[in-house]
Amino acid sequence: MQNEKLITNSIDTSELSFNDFKSIVINDYKIAYESRQASILGRREVLTGKAKFGIFGDGKEVPQIAMAKAFKNGDWRSGYYRDQTFAFAAGISTIKEFFAQLYANPTEGADPFSGGRQMNCHFATKSVNEDGSWNDLTQIKNVSSDISPTGGQMARLVGLAYASKLFRNNKELDYLKHFSVHGNEVAFGTIGNASTSEGVFFEAINAAGVLQIPMAVSIWDDAYGISVPAKYQTTKEDISEVLKGFQRDEKNPGYEIYKVKGWDYPALCEVYEKAINICREEHVPVLIHVTELTQPQGHSTSGSHERYKSKDRLSWENEHDCIAKMREWMLESAIVSDEELAELEKTAKIFVRNAQKEAWNEFLDSMKPEQKFVVDYISAMVKSQPELAKISSQLAATADAQRREIFVAARKAIRLSAGKPSAEREALVNWYKSQDKLNYNRYNSKLHTNGSESPDKITIVDAVYDELSKMVDGREVLNACFNENFARDPRLVAFGEDLGNIGDVNQGFAGLQTKYGELRVTDTGIREMTIMGQGIGLAMRGLKPIAEIQYLDYLIFALNVLSDDLASLSYRTKGIQKAPVIVRTRGHRLEGIWHSGSPISMILGSLRGLHLCVPRNMTQAAGMYNTLFRADEPAVVIECLNGYRLKEKLPNNVGEFTVPLGKAEVLEEGTDITVVSYGSTLRIVQEAAEELAAMGISVEIIDPQTLLPFDKTNVCAASLKKTNKLLVVDEDVPGGASAYILQQILEGQKGYFHLDGQPQTLSAKAHRPPFGSDGDYFSKPSVDDVIETVYQMMHDSNPAKYPAIF
Predict the structure, then answer these.
(1) Strand 228-229 vs strand 224-225: parallel, antiparallel, or unpaired?
(2) 706-708 and 611-613: which strand pairing?
(3) What is the pLDDT of residue 73?
(4) Are the beta carbons of 650 and 470 closer than 8 angstroms?
(5) Statement: the pTM of the whole predicted model exceeds 0.85
(6) Which tens digit of pLDDT belongs to each residue from 642-665?
(7) pLDDT per residue over 699-708, tens digit each?
(8) What is the residue-wise DSSP string for 524-553?
(9) How far, in Å, are 193, 332, 600 from residue 316 at the CA level?
(10) In which region does residue 696 sit, left (phi positive, over 0), alpha (psi from -120 to 50) or beta (all else)?
(11) Crossing angle for the helix pair 311-320 and 322-332, nearest 10 degrees?
(12) Which are the catalytic amino acids?
């Protein structure tokens, strides 16, 4: 029969018996029905208070079954929080694991996707082991860790698909057998119809069309975005109509665009088979617009869709529910009887209910020993402190006590028993202290991979010079560094605006596209979000990308991708995925509002999980790159804009020497005051120090070199022991990065105890500098500002020796 061929071709093109065909269809229906029951039961668990929040894939089950049929080992998915049926069908998640994640169970192995750190329907597969080593990604069905920000999954999708193009076309990568099979992998993306209104969606669609990569985007269209209907979301209320101009033709490359009803099981199977075959074989991006879907339970557990959908719409949704329609088709096609389906559905409900109960009981059982311990010891303390009885009795009576409630009780009992020693109190205190490491692992670990290729573990190699070492422009130091590393490691690729043909606006990559080819050194369009996504996806697939943002100000355009996705990747997967992207950019001291920004505090606040390197010159930058090229953690490197044509000595081992991250350096020793600064501002501090020396003031200048991490060996605090005075000079806004540096030194390093006066900061004004050299002078710290600030601090300390200037 015709339907039999459509449904089974993606599994096996050989002829199947009717019984085999029937078995496949019934199993598909079983998975879809179980998934629906998981959604229904999951919502109940939230509404009864067992889980905090829930968002489910009900109404999207049948198209996800069809998508899963085309998804093969080695393929990647970059999706969002509606794809639970796909995860069940592809064998990526069990229903029990689905509920464990709903309950945020941090017990090892319970939620294998995020360790209890993400809400339900946020899946991820294990790319790396505990030591940071890679798994064989060709042997598993890969899921890049889901994120909630709508549309956010689209940026990395570009990179996941672009990797296949590089693996197929760059034969130097053939040795990476664990990452690709000749670039035959498809990157599947999923997104809701309303989220296609996001700019990152259009940016990613355009980028994939330009790059011609095997990216398959499925749009689940249920005609709403929470409560807002499609007429407010999309021109013509139809995203595939909007994107018709992307359709390829005989003259121009582009997309293959398909449109299919989400309740039509045979048609869905046919479309996915056809679309993914084209995508995989021809490396053509495809878009599958799945329409007429429903959302039976509304958007999430936070509200009811009856509030915003009309009675007619609700009636239509009941009629066109994809599971009901598949059931109807199965009966009409005589594939199965109503009695058989009723029995299957009854069994499915029992199965899902049992999986939920098992997940809930395991979640509670993991904490019951802690609950019992705390109750027992507080109860024992009641003999001498009757006022603790209420704490122990309340905790004992809480049948479903979670860890927060256990620790609230323990800490309160410890506080109330302060000054009343007993063996029981000591045991409770010791237990509480012993939990720090366990709870850190459960809730705070793996901000960084911290594996065998951590930057901390990269061998420190000093720069080597001799009498033949040349003085060259700073840009030439970078160029030589990149050249040697690209020759050493074929995994390295670089891309960005103006990076390829002209070698970047400051010539750091001059000549390297000609030498290494367009696949490795590539120009991109003006699309900062997907430049970052390109880097994330490539890095997740084992390559070593340098994703360039032309100026630091432009990083703001990509901050959502960097913050929501890259910075949290290791943490939110509890270390089972990594993306060692190097974000290369330049900033500081250029004149004008749009090219002179130093938004370091913004970066510090939003990019924990990345290393932040702020080299003072290009030699230090090269050493940091050498470290990062050999390491496996992401970083932002901010090169000094005014340093490319300053002369530096070229190290003999320019591609080998390394600068450790987090190691501060004393640039000039002094005895009167410690001045901490970074990047271009250091040259201003050094110039000021010369005049201050003539005034009898000895300045110790410290360059932290990286702000994340910051001065891990407490060089700043050691300096304060000697000088007892601290000034932080910074180009960020007042209270910006300077406040962070003060916190690190005064609080983190306990530098406060060594001060004999108020620590001060000298920052830029609260605005960006206006155009022109005068604008720079009056907006950012100048040599005069540094001299006068340091002098005033010395005057405040010893006015007789340092009389007032003004």
Answers:
(1) antiparallel
(2) antiparallel
(3) 98
(4) yes
(5) yes
(6) 899 999 999 999 999 999 999 999
(7) 999 999 999 9
(8) --S-HHHHHHHHHHHHHTT-EEEEE-SSGG
(9) 18, 20, 52
(10) left
(11) 40
(12) 595
